[in-house]
Specification:
homodimer; 7-stranded parallel sheet; 5-stranded parallel sheet; 301 residues; 9 helices; 16% strand; elongated; alpha/beta
C-alpha cells in the first residue's frame, strides 16, 4: 500500500504508516493520502487515491472548501483526542465553580471576596450537548467527581452513564435540566448559534457554560450580554467566534469568562496523539476492513 | 444531652444538633461544646464538658494554644471536607498541566506560545504525600483521569487504589517516583518544610506541586528559587507561608504559580458541609459510640 504523507513529514506519522504496513510514496504513485494540515494547500487528488485520512477531528473547513467528495473514503480524527478534550472540559468546570480564575485575576489574597463564590462540583448535574466521543470520555470523569450527566445526541439512543439522553430535536428541554453545560456538538447548519439569548436565559444563573466544539455554536454577542448581566455564572471557551478572538474584544474584559486559545486538543501534541489511530487505519485499509472515524459526507462531519 | 454551640449560632449547626438528639444549652449547663471558630475566644471549659467538637479539619492552632487537653474527648472535622479539597487538588493539577493559568494571564489569543506547553494529565503518575481522607477522595478522581497514584502515609499500610504506598519514613524516595505531587499531610514538627530545595531538585522539571495542607510544609524561599529557575513546571498553592501571602511577595510575580486564598475548603461553605457529620457525632456521643474524627492528642492532629 503506497501512501502519500503531506504537507510535512512528521516522524510520528511516518513511523505509524510504516508500522501499519504502508510505504511512503509520491502523490502521483499513491493509493492513499494522509493529510496533516488544513484545507489550504490541499492537493488535487488523482483518481487512484482511494482513501484520504485527515488528522483533524473537526473538518468543516474541508466541507466548506468543497474538498470532501464521494469518490473515495474519507476519515477524520474524531474521537482520537477525546481524552484531551474531556480533561479540558472537566478542568474548565473546576476552574469556574472553584474560582481558580478569580484567584488568578486577583494577584493578591482576596479571601473575603472569593471564598463565598466557591461552589462544589460534586452533587451537580452537567449536560453534555453533543455527546459523542468527547462526551463519553467525560462521563466516567464526571461520575468520579460525584456529578450526574444528562446527554443530548442526534438519535437520542441512550448514552452509557447518562441519567437521561435526549435526541437533538429535544435540545430545548435540556437547559433547565442541568446545573452546567458542555457544548461538544459538531458544527453543522443545525447547531449554528445553538446557544443564543433565549438559551442563556433558560440556564440557571449559577451555570457555567463550557464550549469545546466550535465558536459559532454560541452567539457571542448574546453571551457577552448574559455574562455582563450575570444571567449565568460564567463561561469557559476554548473556541470563539470570531476565532482567534481579536485583542480588544469585549470578552477579554469580563471577569467571569475563561478563554483558552484552542488548546483542549493541541496542535503541538497532535501527531503523537494521532499516530496509534493512523497505524490502525493503515492496517485496516490494507486488510479491507472499515476504517475508524469514516466521514459521512451527507451528515457534514 | 445538653450541648453548647459557640461562638455563633449558625442555622445549619443548630439544626444538626437538634436532629442528632441534642439540646442547646449555656456553657455552664452543657456536657459538650461545639466550637465553630478558631482558638481566639475559646472558652475556659467547665469539667463537666466531656466532648469538644471542632469544625476545622486542621487544628494545629488549637494545639499551639495549649487548648487540647486529655480530660475529655476532642473531635475535629478531618475527612469532612475531603471531597472539596480533592476537587480542588485535581482541578489544580488540570489548571497547571493544561495551562489554564497561562491562558488567563495572557488576556489575548496566544496560541503559538501556549499550545506547545500543554501536557495531558492522563498517563501520568501523581504522588499524594500524606494520603488520608483527602488523598482517598482524590484517588478515584485521578483514576478516572487515567492517572496512577503513589501514596505516602504514616504507617505505610497500603492505600486502596495506590500502586505503591510508602511509609512516611521513606518519603525521600517518592520525589523521583511520580510526575506530579500533592501535599496533603498534617502539619507537625516532622512535616515542617518537608518540601525543601533538595526535594524540589529531586522532582522532574515537568512536575506540578499542589499544596492543600499547610503553607509551612513547603519552604517558600526554596520554592521561589525553583520556580524561577524552572526546576519544576509550577506550583498550585491554596496555603502559603506566610499566610495570608502579603502583597508584594515574590510568589505573586511568577507566571508558573497559581495561588488561591485558602478556598479548597471554604469558610463560607463550612457549616453546611459539616452539618451531617455533626448530627452523626451528636447521635454517636449520646449512644455512647466512638465519635468520628477523634483527635489523637499524642500525634498532634
Amino acid at each position: 500500500m503506497r501512501i502519500h504523507l503531506g504537507p510535512e513529514q512528521n516522524d510520528h506519522l511516518v513511523r505509524a504508516i510504516a508500522d501499519g504496513g504502508g510505504a511512503l510514496a509520491d502523490l502521483d504513485d499513491a493509493e492513499a493520502l494522509v493529510w496533516d494540515g488544513g484545507p489550504d494547500g490541499f492537493p488535487d487528488l488523482p483518481d487512484r487515491i482511494r482513501w484520504v485520512q485527515l488528522t483533524y477531528a473537526g473538518i468543516e473547513p474541508f466541507f466548506r472548501a468543497g474538498l470532501i467528495d464521494g469518490k473515495r473514503i474519507w476519515a477524520n480524527a474524531s474521537g482520537v483526542y477525546a481524552d484531551n478534550v474531556a480533561e479540558y472540559a472537566v478542568g474548565g468546570l473546576l476552574v469556574g465553580v472553584r474560582q481558580f480564575h478569580s484567584s488568578l485575576a486577583a494577584r493578591g489574597w482576596r479571601k473575603d471576596e472569593i471564598d463565598p463564590r466557591v461552589r462544589p462540583l460534586h452533587g451537580s448535574t452537567v449536560a453534555i450537548v453533543g455527546c459523542g466521543g468527547i462526551g463519553r470520555a467525560m462521563i466516567p470523569r464526571l461520575h468520579a467527581f460525584g456529578v450526574d450527566v444528562v446527554a443530548v445526541n442526534r438519535s437520542g439512543r441512550p448514552v452509557d452513564g447518562a441519567t437521561i439522553t435526549l435526541p437533538s430535536a429535544r435540545t430545548g428541554e435540556v437547559w433547565s435540566m442541568a446545573d452546567h453545560f458542555v457544548i461538544a456538538a459538531p458544527a453543522t447548519a443545525d447547531t449554528d448559534r445553538l446557544v443564543d439569548a433565549d438559551v442563556l436565559a433558560a440556564m440557571p444563573d449559577t451555570a457555567w457554560l463550557v464550549n469545546v466544539a466550535r465558536g459559532n455554536l454560541v452567539d457571542t454577542d448574546a453571551l457577552v450580554d448574559a455574562l455582563r448581566a450575570g444571567r449565568i455564572a460564567g463561561a469557559v471557551l476554548d473556541v470563539t467566534d470570531p476565532e482567534p478572538l481579536p485583542d480588544g474584544h469585549p470578552l477579554w474584559d469580563l471577569d467571569n469568562v475563561v478563554i483558552t486559545p484552542h488548546i483542549a486538543n493541541t496542535r503541538s501534541g497532535l501527531p503523537a496523539a494521532f499516530a496509534p489511530t493512523l497505524r490502525e487505519n493503515v492496517r485496516r485499509f490494507i486488510a479491507g476492513e472499515e476504517v475508524l472515524a469514516r466521514v459521512e459526507p451527507g451528515a457534514g462531519y
